[in-house]
Each structure stands twice: as structure tokens, then as C-alpha cells.
Amino acid sequence: MLLVEDDRDDYLLTSELLEEIGEGTYVLQWADSYEDGVEALFSGAPDLCLLDYRLGEKTGLELLREVVARGCTTPIVLLTGQSERSLDVEAMKAGAVDYLVKGEFGPRQLERSIRYAIERNRSLKALRELNAELQHARNQATAASHAKSMFLASVSHEFRTPLNAILGYSELVHEQLVERDVHELAEDVRRIHAAGTHLLSLVSDILDLSKIEAGKLDLVTHAFDLGALVVEINEAIRPLVGRNENNYRCRCDGVGEMVSDATRLRQVLLNLLGNACKFTSRGTIELVVERRPGCARDFDPSAADAPLPSVECVEFTIRDTGIGMTAAQMERLFTGFSQVDADVTRRYGGTGLGLAISRRLCHMMGGEIFVDSEFGVGSTIRVRLPARLVAIVPA
């Protein structure tokens, strides 16, 4: 232990108190000046420092602030006189772990203060080491995630060029085979084209997700007729609706103009409607688009249900009578490269990227996705977006 004390009598008194404790061995080093105390704290690395408040022309508080500012981690107990008790709080704020009033403590109180200070310092040291390890692990995970995203973006981009060539040539060959009435080969080429189209869709999903994770996906915001966009989506989704003999309904009246990224909004709705078609057989799928005054909870589930002045919300509700989900399955719903369970993956296929991408795109457009589902009954998904993106996310 280090005692920084300019009075020899107080040094001898402290030595006697330590001898009376009777438990453990205390090796006391004495520094009788401000300068020697600072030097001893950094060169001797003591387990504890007892610091007197009066140090000639300077004070223990000044020493305390100086060594703490320089990174000293030794626990320091300030020794004050009766008249300086008002300094106790100030000392604790400056970095002291405890304080003792001269003349008012004996061996038991001194031992308790020493033990508390050392144990506290050990705990803080362990906490600092743990935080350093966690920060290192976090940095490694962040770097690995960034490297993964960059790799996926690079590989996905390289895949697109040959895939587009395969699709183009297979379409050309298919047309020529049909013209020559070679229908058996034409059907084989059609399957090649369909498989290539599916693969290109998967590559596009991976590229989108990697761009989002790398922070390189930019929105292109402009004004567009929302009703016209919904008509386009209805036409695009009808082949998927008919594949499983489903009925499709759409209600979209008086929704007006929207300021957002039409391409990304179309992508989100086609993803969600495509899933509804895939997981529903001989059932009903419905899309309802409504415009209404917005509130904070529309765009942030954790926010209060408070109105947002001058902000309108566009809500897209997609209902289906498909297989539905359990509560456990819904917990994994928006995880990338994941479907609700292995049986669903085997039966319906897919990478599970569509919902993960859709949710992140909604967040980028200032909105949120809400899901309600009952196993064996169906699902309802609500996408809520600001009618004007600039109202929530400044340009």
C-alpha cells in the first residue's frame, strides 16, 4: 500500500493501525510529498493508496484529479480532517473509492475500507477486461459481416452477367424451336429458361440484402400515382394467384399520390403477395390499400400512439387463408436465409430472404411491417409507410 502523507506522525499512526488489523500482511510505502506520491502511484503500482488531503501547498484532490486524468487505476482512499468533511462528495466525484476522517476510524474501519476498495477495483478491472473482450469480439463480428456483405455483393454481381446471357440465348433458342415445331426440345429449353429466371431472382435477393447490410443500397424517391402502381402489381401477381387455384381481391380507392421509392415498394408488395400465393392453396388472397392520418406507432412499434401532424400513412394490408404460422415460427419470420421451419423449406422451397429484405426496405422508406397469423387459418401482413418519405426521413 502507498500512503501519501506529509506528516510523519500521521504516517506512524497509520502504520500502527495496520499492524493492529491482525489479518493479512500490509507492506506500507510512504511518500511525503505531492510529487513523490504521483511518481509512486505510476512506478510502484500499489494495490491501494491512502491519500491525505493536506499536502503542503497542494491538496489530495488535485493529486487525485491529476492521476485519474493520466489513467491511474489504483484505488484511492482519501483521508480528511474533521473540518474537511464537506470535501467527501467532491472526492468521490473526482475518483476516490472511499474516504476516512482522521481521528474517527480504528483498525476495523480501516481494514473494511481497504478490503472494499481492493475488491471493488478487482471487479472494475474484470469488467474492463470483459468489455475489452466484448468490444474486440464485436469488432471482429462487424468486420466479418462487412466482408461477407462485400463478398456476396461482388459474387452476386458477377453471377448476373452470365445468367443474363443464359436467359437471353435460351429464350432465343426456345423461339426458334417453337417455329420449327420441335416442341419436345422447346419444352426442355423453357425449363432451362425458367430455372435461370429463378436463379437470377435468388441472386438479385442476395445482392439486395448484401447492399442493404453494407449500407450501399440507395432509395430513388419521387412522386408517383399509387393507384397505377397497384394496378401493375395486380397484373404481375395474377399468374402466381392462378398457380394454386386461389381467388384474388384488391381494394384501392382514392389513395392518390405517394412520394417514395416506387421500385422498392413494388418489390416489397410482390414479395409479400408472392409468399401469400405460395403458402395458400384454393383459398383467398386480398390486398387492401388505405390512406389515413399517421401516428408514431405506425412507423415504430415501440413509440407512443401519438398523432403526427401533417403526416399521412399509407397502409397495405395483405390477407391470405393459407397455412398460417405459430408464435414460435413468427419469431424467425424476418431472419435472413431462414424460413419458419425445415418442413416448410422442403415443401415450398425458397431462401427465406424475401421477408428479411422487405422489412429492411420498409425501414429505409420510413415504415414498418406488422404480422398477425394463426396456424392453419391464415396470415395478415400490414405494411405502413409515410405517404411522403421526406416527412419521416429528411432528404
From TrEMBL:
The keyword Coiled coil applies. It is an enzyme of class 2 (transferase). Residues 154-389 form the Histidine kinase domain. This is histidine kinase. Keywords: Coiled coil, Kinase, Phosphoprotein, Transferase. InterPro entries: CheY-like_superfamily, HATPase_C_sf, HATPase_dom, His_kinase_dom, HisK_dim/P_dom, Sig_transdc_His_kin-like_C, Sig_transdc_resp-reg_receiver. Its EC number is 2.7.13.3. It comes from Nannocystis pusilla. PROSITE patterns: HIS_KIN, RESPONSE_REGULATORY.
